[in-house]
User: Fold this.
Amino acid sequence: MKKNFKIIAILQARVQSSRLPNKALLKLNKKPSIIRMVDRIKEARLLHEIWLATGKSKSNDKLEKVLLNTDIKVFRGDDDDVLSRFSEIAKITKADIIVRLTGDCPLIDPKIIDNTVILLIEKKADYASNVLKRTFPDGLDVEVFTKRTLNITNNNAEPGFSREHVTTYMHGLHNAKYKKGKFKKVSLEHESDFSHLRWTLDEEKDLIFLNSIYKSLPYNASWQDILSHLSKFPLMQLNNNIVKHNEGTQNSQLQNYERYKVSNKLFKRAIKTIPLGSQTFSKSYIQWPKGSAPLFIDRAQGVKIIDKDGNHFIDYVMGLLPIILGYCDKDVDHAVILQIMKGNIFSMPSSLEMELSEILTKIIPSAEMVRFGKNGSDVTTAAIRLARAYTNKDLVAVAGYHGWHDWYIGSTSRTLGVPEKVKSLTHKFNFNDADTLESLFKKFPNKFAAVIIEPAGLIKTDINSLKKIRTLCNRNGVILIFDEIISGFRINLGGAQKEFGIIPDLSCFGKGIANGYPLSAIVGKKEIMKYMEDIFFSSTFGGEAISLCAAIATIKKMKKLHVIEKNKQYGKKISKELNKVINDSNMHELLKVSKNDWWPQIEMTNLPIENDLFVSLLRQELLKNGLFLASTFNLCFAHNQKGILDLTVKKFKKSIISLKDFINSNNPEKNLKGSLIEKTFKVR
Ligand SMILES: Cc1ncc(COP(=O)(O)O)c(C=O)c1O
Assistant:
């Protein structure tokens, strides 16, 4: 390396911060965070000088004062034009190479600083950084550039955003509307991706996290030491929000291909080893306009999901309904992490099985005894076997979707692989018309073991029909099973049976029971459930502890925060607000949001173009505007957070306006940039 390069670091900081005022002065294990940061920067071996660049305004006097007894030089410049401060310092110091650091990174790593400088020099680059492609934890950001790069940037960057953010013109990562220069850029990357970790100081909870790191480790611990410390104390990570606030930039201006470039690339790989490229039919590419839609999700938090390209969306699919509180709910995940430390699967049952069973028997009217499974299909199938064993009869009447097993799927239009004999044992009827069930009972007298229904769903339940079904089952000695995989924990904590006061013999729960951890439950009358000792319903993971403790934590929180009531209130608001948007856009003859408060859905009628094209265009536009919405609003507690409703309305409005333009154009098809969604088999 050439010896005579003068290398300086400029740390930009200020006292004002809307989210966390005075953050540079807040103490991390007794020392102001800015001093903590400086102490770490000083460990870098290649720096000749370290400068603090702050604004002239009086509020920053405090910052200058804190640095008085250090050897850090302070430069006070324009409050908004931060770029000019860098330029001035470079002139004063005659620096050849400038390292840019920001004051919100108290865990900045000196080795990463040195390595970025070395990379710039070795590659003879104009700009080097570890933010071009993020692989390090957020909060270890280092940017290095030459004097020439800085001069060009200072001469060309336009007032406003680019000058405030200093390097926008150099890296060109921000919104395409900002000018960018032509530079040779090199990226410092780690072989593993740690970019989901958030180590910045931006809000109160970051302070708790950073403070605990400084209290536990020496001030100069390397970032790898911090990582290994966190792996021993994963609870600390929970103060860390994996969806970063500065991820606000949407890529919606980008062409579809660019916007979903990583997803499309990954898909080509995934489809080679995974049929459909997904484990779940409804999560696969055929449900979305492929090319104009993400295909792989990277992470999620609250109601936000982020795809592999870094696009983020407000989600209304919520993993197909298991997420009832919000992604990565802190209370549930705390309980889970504690359980991980104790173990997940043992050679005998854990007492968690009993604890959760007792809770369920208290909240679900029909629950006297309980068994657990992993998927909804496990417990609906167990319920059917139990009913057959108890009644010694074979036929089953179904009205809804009940899972992937032969006994049910044989009654749908996707029956490939199901033996004819099995198909003949299942019969469909309309649950809102009990007479259709009565006809079945008359046609096959004394042959039915069970009737299984979704007692509440997208179509409003006719309570009289439900009562009649109950009576018909009693009269014919048939087991009535409520499939509450969706309605349980959504319409009422005790399920639709509690809501309507109609009690089944057996019922099945799943999805929302554990906020996304895999758990399902079959509950019912003791007299019938006792047959579980004679039938065979047994699985290695049935008593898996993490999901059980997640369910206990989920139910506790749902009760405490009245989650179901809050979600229903949100459901009411969303249908009101979105119907207003639809009316204002004069689209009300085609679209409507149903007023089903616990599970609103988009209803479509009189479409002027083919249904699949309409849905594909609608989904394409919703995705483009950052709404991950299929046809139902699968609500969770985090949707109630401030601002989510307004944002949803705004994004929905934009999407409806473009959709309207598309369908009114001469050739609506040409507006579809991705592929048409594929017709799926309809189950409800
Ligand atoms: C009402 C209902 N029952 C059963 C199931 C099957 O559950 P799983 O997919 O977890 O097996 C589902 C899944 O969507 C469902 O909605």
